[in-house]
Amino acid sequence: MTVLSAREQELLALVAAGLANRAIARQLHYSESTVKNALTRILNKLGAESRTAAAAYWWRQNPDTCPECGAAPRRRDQPNLDRSGGNRLRP
Asked: What is the pTM for the complete model shown?
């Protein structure tokens, strides 16, 4: 099993959430080049050829977790309340 640092795991979660390098840099208070270098290290550690492959690795390791907030996502069959208070299923 590949060991990523806590910061690398955080960066990988943001990649899995679909954020671009610039957005990740802003969120982590890094320069964009630091994000690129860190992502290269992560890809090397994972043996991944692309950020998509790295994101897929993250999702395999965290299937029930939202990468941006750490919360478990709502299942599609769970009700979602709209603003009027009505109960309807998520599309």
From this structure: 0.69
